[in-house]
Write a structure and sequence with these properties.
The chain is α/β, with parallel strands linked by helices. The longest helix has 16 residues. The chain has one domain: Rossmann fold (3-Layer(aba) Sandwich), CATH 3.40.50.1970.
Length: 152
């Protein structure tokens, strides 16, 4: 299948989350972007979760402020969820803590504040565990990364 769902709580998060979609697309991984708020549109979140459960491998969920969306998604699907804290207030620390401090049994892998590209890279690594073509693409990406020289 190799499909990644990218969900965010607000359209204002799109600029940050688009980096994940762009990375995945560049590496030939199907992805779809959804906007739904855990607080304002909970039924839409539930509907999207059902679609994700049936049609996607991994969820990348971005959220700011209370940042409940990644945890809610993790509670609704059996797929890995990667949380992206969005810097919406308090330098994003509120979002980071809300996402990373999940209770036992409902894990959410969490990347850096505004780190949606790293979320996409992690999703690619997970997909590479079962797909040799994705693994090859990931290795090529890593090889290119290792050739980059630090700026002076």
């Amino acid at each position: 299948m190799n499909k990644v769902a990218i969900i965010m709580g607000s359209k204002s998060d799109l600029e940050i989350m688009q980096k994940a979609a762009q990375f995945l697309t560049e590496h030939g991984i199907q992805n779809e972007v959804f906007v739904a708020s855990a607080h304002r549109t909970p039924q839409k979140v539930h509907d999207i979760a059902q679609d994700i459960e049936a049609n996607y491998d991994i969820v990348i969920a971005g959220a700011g402020l209370a940042a409940h969306l990644p945890g809610v998604m993790a509670s609704l699907v059996t797929k890995p969820v990667i949380g992206v804290p969005i810097n919406a207030a308090v330098n994003g620390l509120d979002s980071l803590l809300a996402i990373v401090q999940m209770p036992p049994g409902v894990p959410v892998a969490t990347v850096a504040i505004n780190g949606s590209k790293n979320a996409a890279i992690l999703a690619m690594q997970i997909l590479a565990l079962k797909d040799p073509e994705v693994r090859k693409s990931f290795q090529e990406f890593r090889d290119i990364q290792s050739e980059l020289k630090p700026a002076n």
